[in-house]
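(Structure overview)
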Amino acid sequence: MMMTPNAPALPAAGLPLFPRLCLTLVASTHEVEDRMGDLEESYVNALASLGPEVALRRYRRDIASSILAIAYRRLESLILLRFLDRGRLLVSMVVAAGAFALCCGTLAALVPPPWWAQAGLPIYPGQFRGFNPPDYPVCQAWTDYQGNNRMARDLYRRGVHVLPIATQDAVRSGAGRNLSVLLPRTAKVVAIYCGTARQSAPIEECSRGGCDAGAAPFIEDSAYANGRVLTLGMATRSTAAEDHVTGHFWVAWQDTNPSP
């Protein structure tokens, strides 16, 4: 069973180090400890109530606000103490601006992409709510026992949307490839068909019993606050690397509340 990605938590080491270093450039030790405690507490509260994406944005905004506020107070002191020495004042301002730009750039580079972006989703789907029951056929045979084209019947039914998905890279032996797609909350999945292909060969049928290419599909259907996320996976058991096997899926779904 695949684990649903949890909301990203503030790392114990790494990410908090750079806000601390940035604050050290403009604040005293007492101010740094006091402000870092407030920042982390604010992040944890936002993470629980607003979600990881908003919490990260607020965390980075609060860091910048804290540095600017302390730097502004220090600048006022410099102006009062050195208003007759314009050269020293200019150097101090340039050094402070350079340090602030360096810290902001480092923070932006260290914040990892959110899990939904790493999964290939276009937007944040909201908080995880639970797993949807598999009340639709998954990776069934493309034809029925009478030889009729079951796949065409499900994919080209009236009112059905078809979303074709394929792995961008080859599925390596002993490893897997996951693909995530975001459907509306009102989407009802009709069926999911699966297939595999070697090199430039045509796509071959892949059913629940396995695939000719030595691959096995797996699917997870999850409900989120802003949508429905299908995670489609393809893993290999005995396929050689030179076979260059790719996984293919066709997701057929209907909108239970279509817009006029």
